[in-house]
Amino acid sequence: MIARPDESYFPPVQSKMVLAPESEAKVIATEPLPDSEAVWTKLVKKIYLDPKGITRIWESAERRTRPKASGIDGVGIVAILEKPTGPEVVLQKQYRPPLDKIVIELPAGLIDEGETAEEAAVRELKEETGYVCEVIESSPVMFNDPGFTNTNLKMVHVSVDMSLPQNQNLEPELEENEFIEVFHVKLVDLWEECIRLEKEGYAIDARIANLAEGIEIAKKFRL
């Protein structure tokens, strides 16, 4: 990551989309989804033996989009901007119909066929925020809600060189059905910002909350 002595290297995010909790986006109907209409997800019945050898049944959800040659569904992206005033994390606001709320999230996305997690992270960050980046490291495979779904992801940490012209004049490549507002938060203030944003009516993605809580634990125990 490239630190610069002058704040002019860090222009404000030029996000055309402004997503407030009172956004006009809203769920207007909820109804059962026939399997024949499902494009992204499916419900499955798992028949398994428990530790005592008893046959049991578990209801589970799975994605239909996992690449055939991959054991991973998607990526979350930790993009840190090193500023003279302290490191800031790239976040975004996005309306999520399952919650019927604007959600505070890290940039993220699904892996395409033939992609590695790292390649997907570089592509998704460019598409969603406009930033170009280089991969630093990737996490182990993480499972989002293992009691409900086998959906998983890797967290990919990237560096963003703010001296690059591409990172001065951001040009996201959003799809027609994507509505994303990009913003930055100082890492040292992330926990307080999560609390403030929740009070304002936003939902907080668990990956953001876990990152913020980890920072607070590190502060408390001076790790």
From TrEMBL:
Keyword Hydrolase recorded: yes
Start and end residues of each Nudix hydrolase domain: 70-210
Pfam family, one: NUDIX
Keywords: Hydrolase
Record bears the keyword Hydrolase: yes
Superkingdom in the source lineage: Eukaryota
Similarity comment text for this entry: Belongs to the Nudix hydrolase family.
Entry protein name: ADP-ribose pyrophosphatase
